[in-house]
Design brief:
The chain is built from 33 helices and 26 strands. The protein is globular and about 100 Å long. Helix 12 crosses helix 27 and helix 30 runs antiparallel to helix 31. The termini are far apart. It folds into four domains: 193 residues, no CATH class; 250 residues, no CATH class; 186 residues, no CATH class; 157 residues, no CATH class. One of its GO terms (cellular component) is cytoplasm. It holds the Pfam family CLU.
Amino acid sequence: MSIPTSTTVFVRCPAQGFRSHSKEELTDYFPPFYWHYIKIAQKKRPMLGSPLREQPNEHPSRSSVHWYLTSTESSNVQNESTAAGLEGDPRKNDFKWATRSVLSYEQQTELIQYLLDRLSIHEKIDHPFLTPSIASSKSKYLDPRCYLLSNDNRSTQLSNNTIESDPLEERTDVGLYTDDPIYHPSKSTPLGDEPDSDSSYHLSEYTSSSNDPAYDLEDPELSMTEEEGTPSRVRREKKKERHTVKDKLSLHEKNEMTTTEEKRENVYRDWNEEYQTWYGQFVKMNASDDTQMSTLQKRGQTLSKLNAVSQQFVNTATIYAKIIISEYELPLHRKTIKPIDVGGVAGGVKYRVQNIMYKFAFDILLVEYPPLWMYGGPKPDHRAASKAAKNEMRGLEAHSSTYIEGLFYPMMALVDYLGFRVVAMPVLPIDKTTLRYGSDDGGETVHDEDEELREKMRTVAERLYIRGHMTGHTPGDSKMIYGPGDIEGHRGHDGRMYIVADPATRLHPRPRSVFYELLRPEFLAKHKVSLCSDAFTRWNTGENKNEMNDEVRAATKKLLTMSMQELHQYANFLPHIWSRMISSKFDREAIDTTNFVNAFTHILGINFRYNGLLEDLSEDQMLKKIVRSGCIARCAKSELREILRLKMRQVQAPSEEDFKSVVVRFMNELIGGTANSKTYWSRDLCRQLVDWFWFDLSKEQIDTFDITTYADIRLVINFFTKYSGIELEYQTMDRFVQLGDLKNFRFVPADIRSLSAVVKQRSDIYFSMGMLSLLRNERKREKAIEQGKDLVLLKDSLLRQAVLAVQNLRKASVTNMASPLYLLSWATAQIEMAKLSDWDVIDDFAFVRISIYFNITIDMMTEKYKKRRDELVVEAAEVYAQFCEKKGRRDKRDLLLEFVKRTREQGIKEKEDFIPFYAN
């Protein structure tokens, strides 16, 4: 009897074959998850494909198929199979039975008979057992996959077919899964024509024992945790058997099968638990008095695990953040990730996916009439909200850099994509009932009932130079809080930890700027006067609030005078650096110079919003152009964000292609390539430079503004594309790297390769990666010496690893300039790179950077770090002296060696001690 033509039948016999007619014996040989069953389903059209594999714990709908592998359901099979004359064959219970709504009783009987006949072929073959030891000794067996499908409109008859056996005898040393040798000379299956070979897949399986010494993956992070005392003979024995990367991954997957199944049972990953496990060890490591890099490097496992969890979190958060942003303008019913309501005054709309919380960094309407926005006042200011989100991360960085054991801080990432900024944090084990410090309801209720937490917060405040103050809606309910009143302490902390600047010092006063224009922690460390976090806000309800406001006002005045003068002096030290940056191609050296300018500006505690003052103070025209170019690029970034948000409203379900054309139009407008360029420059760009960066532009300068003469177009485009996540094609980017006339250059959509997400993350990701890079170099050296190899052969790989360490540790320092540990680590990597570099590659600037960083942080270094700082400065001076000797500059060499001798005897006392580094 024929099977209905609309029925597609998938058949999958046990993956290891049948060795017995007994169900009980089969169960002994094969675990449950190795069983594959027949599934017969009604289809609207023919379908080709691989056989379906049913998971053991996943039962399909009872209306589509029945399960007859359990004793409770075997009676129906027994009754109906007896009538079909199959009661003597014990294999019948090893199959699923199709429902009567799909196949008739006669069709079911005929199908089962056909399958039993097919199985008789496999019973003559000696199949391997599942245990690795037995499996390795068995080599010849048949893949029992069978495909039965109806793929045309004709009736297909089930019939017995003969199988040629010659190919079986030729099969030797094959894996568990190979292509099926069962074939028909007529190239047809029992149910129709044979599918094309391209529609099948071929798998081979590595069959070594799991006890193989090379079973574990060769992971650089894991190899670091190997005990240093392992004899070299043992390590050499482990390498007798060689295995490819694929082999080891296959073996690793087998070994982790149980763990994988357990992970699958956990619906969501607990990011916070994984991170805090290693972060706690990281804090203990840094809280100790031992500041030697060797001590940190020995903690390879802690650094490796911390970096892995943090990086995986950021990568996952970025993927879903892009989806949330792309669906922002879609109606609620079309969103794949829908918003949730978890409260919070300034938090905005929030999303939760994969145990990660997301929120848009948008301004929030607090009062409808008259309108009052959180950051913009009478109208929204989304740029200020974006800055506030970044300040939130800086607050976490400042707090965590104090390394107080017992305080834990969440991971955090800022994802900028298509004009939107999203803040991502893992779901924490906290709620309103766990709040012990601060306020989560706008100050109506202030908590301070946990004595241990209060003491830790006071210790943090002392180290950050933050002054405690009374906060609360009513005097009777006010509490002494160290930090902003809306900080949340749940035996861990959330919220900002910065000191607000005086809004009255702005050229155009904006009272709401107290919530996003803040003093940097680096300035507080140099200022050494504790200030109130909630100055100039209603959060400060103490009787001495006017005194606290005056202290912040005095600190702001000091920043705008003394600190700016200090920055100006350092900038004048390096006129040749600025000249070379403008007059040569924009290469890696130029990028390093740019990063250096940004870094030492922040180390001095100076915000970028004061760059207009630096430009006005500077007498070097090249430095002026560099500062202007950086500020213009930042203004253009904010302008493009607004443009992309407007474009999002039009396309709604966007792809990057939808935005490339508008990006190209704006970039041409920016560089002066359109008729509207002058309008944009004079109306929008100049206003932003004056308002956001304190530039002093006269009306005449605004009317005649020309970006091609006021700044350097090459620098503007390089900075702008970096800040905005725009990746240009290599040929296009090369035009802005090399020197040349760009007056007539115009962008086209083909110049844009992609619009990428720009992600800002916690500094410990960069720090752990940088330290791991240094650790790998140390291990490579030890291994080469042990094996008697020439280190010169490893020089290139060691240098690349050192460059990676420098880049990551610089990012860690820039992200958290208040951490002396990061600065010391960066200097260590910089010296390592200088030692490995050819003297023709590096120059004086590589050593000057180290000295300037230490010079401007001399007031920030605590006693704990001063000894290690002096050691690094001495080491840098010695390497610098070698460099000068190679270059024939003996006078500079002698000056540096004298500095080394004096520093070893007396240490570094004041900034003038660094003069030998700057002398020509």
